[in-house]
Design goal:
InterPro entries: RVT-Znf
Distance between the termini: 71 Å
Helix content: 55-70%
Order of helices and strands: HEHEEEHHHHHHHHHHHHHHHH
Number of domains: 4
Radius of gyration: 29 Å
Protein name: Reverse transcriptase zinc-binding domain-containing protein
Length: 437
């Protein structure tokens, strides 16, 4: 609440508080409240303190967890945000979480802590970079203190899913989109005290979209005008403002990957979906990549020992993985492809059925295709698991054991599929699938 810096104005405001308390039953806690004065004599401040029973606080101060200051928000003012992000991840995180589990936790941190601050302040880039670094380290290493190169660049991870990323927010662009709501309020002359003040002091009768701030204007006001210039082309065609749509517009550009729809299959086991994303980018630590990093000097497939190991060989040109694929496709009663998985990834067309690159789409319902994708994602995951088991323990799994694990994964997800299925033909296909060994 704001009022003039004199005893009479303060007493009138307190009287209004008293009337509100009598009507609602809610009372002000004087021990948790402060008064803040600017340009007021010390004598008047003492009189106000005696009349209200509240102490005079200093600026900057914290309100609802954020720093309130008339000056530009500095790095030290944001330490609380960085500490909260670190504490949240340390408390809930674990190195036993899968990549997919850590990704969910990072998204939760971004959508709560950072989002709250980003909608209020222009956050320093140094702070945003530190939050990115904390989350990047947690994604790839959990709470371990070790450092090693990430499997995929953070910029790629923060791309929208249609561009091959995982849909994490680019914090700087989200901050711009979140502050765009102030630009929109000013343009529409919303019924806010701050908007009325801005129009009275800065804009007056000028065109807001063409407004240029003076060099002597405050840093925050010049930044808001800069955000306005960034969003101006998009705002020109808007009838309402949405932070999400503003962010999507800022993220325009880049090449859409043809396989992004496969990663959006909500029936996929999350860790399998993340693993398929790594395969699509060809960023697993296969022997050919380890040789490039000079970690190993030998390049052979641990599963078949018959060829050099790379992504194309493992999925599915290797004799071992080919046998596993044959067993899975016989179970699904689907035509066996004669190409490796990366030819499939590269030949998906956006205007065709999303799963047409995996199976003969005219032979299956959409739900059946989704079930088959669950099986194929599980198969690739367990092939890689068997490869690592062979590399570390010297134990070579059998294709039949891998196939059994795939069956278990598919059957564990069948109940979700059936609950969402409305086609009797698809339900019949699923029941026949479960009846097969």
């Amino acid at each position: 609440m704001f009022c003039k810096g004199d005893k009479t104005s303060v007493m009138l405001m307190l009287r209004a508080f008293q009337t509100f308390s009598e009507a609602s039953g809610l009372k002000m806690n004087g021990s948790k409240s402060n008064i803040y004065c600017n340009g007021v004599d010390d004598g008047v401040i003492r009189l106000v303190e005696e009349a209200t029973g509240m102490k005079c606080g200093g600026i900057p101060f914290r309100y609802l967890g954020v720093c309130i200051s008339p000056k530009r928000l500095g790095i030290s003012d944001c330490e609380r945000l960085v500490d909260k992000v670190t504490a949240r991840i340390t408390l809930l995180g674990s190195k036993k979480l899968s990549y997919a589990g850590r990704l969910v936790l990072i998204k939760a941190v971004y959508s709560t802590l950072h989002n709250y601050w980003a909608r209020i302040f222009i956050l320093p880039k140094n702070v945003l970079n530190r939050i990115d670094a904390i989350c990047r380290k947690f994604l790839w290493h959990g709470n371990d203190s070790k450092e090693s190169p990430p499997l995929v660049a953070w910029d790629t991870i923060c791309q929208p899913k249609r561009l091959g990323g995982l849909g994490l927010k680019k914090l700087h662009l989200w901050n711009i989109a979140a502050l765009g709501k102030y630009v929109w309020w000013i343009e529409k002359k919303s019924d806010h005290l701050w908007v009325k003040w801005v129009h009275a002091i800065y804009i007056k009768d000028k065109n807001w979209m063409e407004f240029v701030p003076s060099a002597s204007a405050s840093w925050s006001w010049r930044k808001i005008c800069w955000v306005k210039d960034m969003l101006k082309p998009w705002l020109a065609g808007c009838s309402s403002y949405s932070v999400k749509l503003g962010y999507s517009w800022l993220c325009t550009g880049g090449t859409e990957v043809p396989w992004h729809c496969c990663m959006r299959n909500r029936f996929l086991i999350p860790k399998h979906s993340f693993f398929c994303w790594l395969i699509a980018h060809q960023h697993l630590l296969t022997q050919d990549r380890l040789m490039q990093m000079r970690i190993t000097q030998r390049n052979y497939c641990f599963l078949c020992a018959d060829a050099a190991e790379n992504h194309s060989h493992l999925f599915f040109l290797c004799i071992f993985s080919r046998k596993c694929l044959f067993l899975v496709f016989v179970w699904f009663q689907t035509i066996l492809p004669d190409r490796d998985v990366f030819v499939w990834f590269q030949t998906i067309l956006p205007d065709r059925d999303v799963f047409e690159w995996w199976i003969n789409c005219r032979m299956k319902t959409l739900m059946a295709k989704k079930v088959i994708v669950i099986g194929l994602a599980s198969l690739m995951y367990h092939i890689w698991w068997s490869r690592n088991q062979c590399r570390l323990e010297g134990f070579v799994n059998s294709p039949e054991n891998v196939f059994k694990k795939v069956q278990d994964d598919v059957r564990s997800r069948i109940n979700i599929c059936i609950a969402a299925c409305k086609s009797w033909k698809a339900k019949e296909w699923i029941h026949l699938l479960l009846a097969r060994d």
